[in-house]
Structures are given as C-alpha cells and as structure tokens.
Amino acid sequence: MLGAGWWMGRPRYFLVFVRELTAFFIGAYLVFLLILIKQVAEGAEAYQSYVDFLASPGMIAFHVVAFFFAMFHSISFFNLIPQGMAIRIGEERVHPALISGPNYVFWAVATAVVLLVILL
Amino acid sequence: MAADQAVERSGDSVRAASGGVAPAESITLEVYRYDPSTGEESFQSYDVEFEDDWVVLDALNHIKDTIDGTLSYRWSCRMGVCGSCGMMVSGYPKLTCSAFLRDYLPGPIRVEPLLNFEVERDLIIDFDGFLEKLESVKPWIIRDQDKPIEDGEYLQTPAQLASYKNYTMCINCMLCYAACPVFGHNPDFLGPAALALAHRYNLDSRDEGREQRLKVILSNDGIWDCTFVGECSIVCPKGVDPAGAIQQSKVTGAMEYYKSFLAPWKSRK
After folding, report:
1. What ipTM, to 2 d.p.?
2. Fewer Cβ close by (within 10 Å): the C or N end of chain B?
3. SS3 of residue B15 by DSSP
4. Which residues of chain B have pLDDT under 70?
C-alpha cells in the first residue's frame, strides 16, 4: 500500500495530483457562477451586492488561482486526448498534433466568441 | 569472476577484493533484503567493481556468485525478453538486465523489489494475483464457432494487424504495476498489463470474445479505476501503451452505457 505522500515521489505523480486538484477549483468556480445566476434572477440590487462581493480582494485572488488551474486542466487533457483516441489511416496512427490541435483551435474560437459577447 | 575471491564483511557492508587488490573503480549497490522466516527487512550494501558494460543484473549475479550466495532474485534471459528481472532501481521500475551501472554513477544504486507487490524473499515478489488478473480477461482468441482446420488460417490485413500490434509486445514484466499508484492503493485493480491485453484481443479482427471481456473490464475494479496517470506507458520497456489502451476501452465502455439507453435491445446481457 502506498503512503500518503506517494504523489510527491515523482514529478509526473505530482502533476497528476495537481490535475485532479483542479477539479476542486473548477467546481468552486461553478458554484459562484450558479449563485450569480440566482442573484440576477432576484433583481438588480441582489446582483449588484453579489458583484461587489466578487470584487473583494479574496474573491479576485480565488478567481486568478481558479483561472490558472482551469488552464492547466484543459491543456493537460487536450495533450492526453491523442493517447486515448486511436485514429488510423491504413496502418499508421494519425499524428497526435492533428487530434489535439483541433481542440486548441475550438478552444480559441470559443474564447473569442465569449469575449466578443462580453466586450461588445 | 573467480570463485575463490576473498570476501571481508563489516557489519552490513560487504566488500569483495580480487586477490587482495581493491578494484580501481567500484560502485555500491544497496540491496533490499527480506527474510520471511524472521520477518526481518534491511538494506545491505555491496561494493562491486565497476564494469562499463555491466547492467544491474550483472552486478547482482556477481554478488550472488562471489560475495553473498543468500541473495535471492528472479532472472532468466538477460536480454529484455522474459520479463523476469524487473526491480526498483534507484526508485524506478526497470528491467535490471537493461539498467546499465554507468547510468547510475557514482552510485550508490538502490535495488528493491517491485513496488506495490508483496515480497516473498529479498527481491522476489508474489505475482499470483497478477496471473489471476491476466487470466480473468481471457487473453486468447475466442470464436463463437471455430472453423475447421481444412478451411485454412484466419487472414488479416496489415492494417488489422497494426491496430493491436503494440499491445502484443507486452512481456508481463509488471513494471507498469509498480509504476501505477492506482494499483498501489487498490490491489484489486485489474491494472495496466491485463487491461492492455484485453484491449489487444478486443481489437483483433479474428476474435469474437469482446462481450465476455467487457464484463470484466467494465467491472468495479476495471478501467474506470484508472485516473490516467500514464506512468505505466512511460516505464514499459517494450514501448507498449497501456494507458492509451485503457482510455480507448473507456470510450468503448461509455458507448456501451449510452447504447443501453438508446438501443436496450442491442446492449450487453
């Protein structure tokens, strides 16, 4: 049986552990997002007070950390996708970049669309 | 190595001296020892002369032949084919027949039994559980009805062969199990090699036993336990990709799940 500190034994174990840990921050972010939707439904005053709460230093710090964890989570899984998808042309497997690449392209397009909606 | 070499012991440390002359260069191996009759475990240091073309297994054989005949370990082919000599070499699962001493200079090299297994004695692990797991995934070609021998062989195209060939390279050395923290936490996990082998036969165009294997690989201790650490594929000495095989099997498993809703009459029994 492995000891409690197994995840510190090798760099790869550590990175996997961090990848698993990202789920907590992404989950917590979604909870704050759901509360935001609820506050919007409750009216302008409730929405404004929640926005003020989100602007507090602690919440900004949380969102910065959650952002970097979300980036790490997405990038690590995009890079793992080719290993889990055995697409073949004849006897050869398709190059990994041709599988992970479209994910990055779609990610960039989706981000651009979201930014357009927010900024325009 | 001469059998009449002088051996002098000092506490836990053992030193071999050839004809009374200390070797010009040496390297220390710190070897795990376990005596099942007393339950005692320890590390014993052996200084062996350094040879540029020696692997860790050569050093262990030298120790057993000339310094300490009580040291126990498994080995057979000495050329990375039999899969017997897997051990933890300085904390990393390796075939000791392909771990060169020169890559660990100046030493010491710590040699331990494969992680995550019960130890029988010194560097020998108990792999009965591994063999049971291998057998449970039915790693052979299953046919609903065998065709008569006179009808000839089952033919495959090069592309059909290529789809599973990587997984046929497994030599059952169990390095992947020593590298897998999921198996380290749950000894019942089927593990990388068994699941890769199941995938190998599921991909084989001659096989018709996929349904039987899915029952095993989709069970509680099957593919869903894997958290895609991926270290199994990194340590594999034969370039097999068990982590990829398991993720691909997860896609199959997820499709089976959705099929049970969308087309329940076609789903598995």
Report:
1. 0.82
2. C
3. strand
4. 1-24, 266-269
